[in-house]
Amino acid sequence: MSLIDLVMQYVGTPALEKIAARFDLSPAMVERAAQALLPALAGGLMTHAQAGSLPAAPPAEAPPGSDAARAHGNDVLGAVLGSRDASRSLAQEASTQTGINVDTLKKLLPQFASLAAKATSNAHAQGGLGGLASQLGGLL
């Protein structure tokens, strides 16, 4: 299972639709961006899960598309990718892959990181590390 599948299972299409509406993008474009960006986060999230330091799910007051979700996502990106340069590089690679403007991807990346933290936190809570590892195993 890919991280995008995990996000869709635990967060759902409405979350991507909220992000699309917030940034005035089509849902198809947001999904394409998610498919390009989320796999890069899977390995880092699994590493943190194995170390017992999985980034926390976003608080209830950080719904998808919100400024609070962006702030939470930036914290997750810092923990998972380690630097702003890594985030910028990821956005640039995804832009080349998808044709989506790099500035748009830079705005979407924290939103997706927040969703990924929520999805992995939910999967971990339901199945433990083994369940999360089996769900993300195809990416590692």
UniProtKB/TrEMBL annotation:
Residues 52-73 are annotated as: Disordered. It comes from Frateuria flava. This is DUF937 domain-containing protein. It comes from the Bacteria.
